[in-house]
Amino acid sequence: MCKRKTSNVTQEKKCWLGNIKQILTESLGLPEIWNNLGTRLTGKHLGIINTTLKSVYKFQWEKYINRTDNGPMGGNKLRTYRKFKNVFMTENYLSYMTNNTARKYFARLRTSAHSLRIETGRHTVPKTPVDARLCRHCNKIDDEFHFLLECSKSPDSVTARRTFLNQMTTLYPDFTNMTKSDQFIFIMAADNEDKCMLLQSFIMSLVRNRGSL
Ligand SMILES: [Zn+2]
């Protein structure tokens, strides 16, 4: 890093280099690194930087994902995601789902990057209020829960859902005693191989009958 440039950086100056200075001197408590730029970092320093940056990022991630403020139209894109995503880690479904297309659709469902009306309603002009983003067939909010567990638009989807729920009950006898909301969270967590194998077939049936996601 050019010493001539770093000498011009002040705490007040908001730029890339200013942010680096702030992270090193304030967030990490390592002003000696900033003051001795150009010298090789020790393993100890690298270890502190690595651990602290991960810790700070995890804290900010948890704070962001759990924020409950809604937009002016009552929306919050994370409202569904945080129900089943509460630990910062690589998700098991990414390795357990062997069908690449099903994995892609499932990732879209988890992250609300799909074409259900709960999402497309955010992009209309003017923006559609959340409670008006309805499935045209069922007149219920067209969100991930509705898509997975409720929508009766396609008879084939209803049959596929019945089969999937029966398979889940065979695999997890307590599944049938859960509330619908808990079943949804249990499904979306997709944390083991057996569940992922059932889920990927079910997702493909739903998308096939819907036409797209
Ligand atoms: Zn529907």
Describe this structure in words.
With 213 residues, the protein is mainly alpha-helical. It has two domains: 2-65, no CATH class; 78-210, no CATH class. Helices cover 56% and strands 0% of the residues. The protein is built from twelve helices and no strands. It has helices at residues 3-6, 16-27, 31-35, 43-65, 81-84, 93-96, 100-111, 117-120, 144-149, 155-171, 180-189, 193-210. Helix 7 (100-111) crosses helix 12 and helix 10 packs antiparallel against helix 12 (193-210). The chain is elongated and about 70 Å long. The chain starts with a helix and ends with a helix. The model has no long low-confidence stretch (mean pLDDT 86). It binds zinc ion (ZN). The site of zinc ion (ZN) has 6 residues, from loops. Zinc ion (ZN) is lined by residues 135, 137-138, 146, 151, 153.
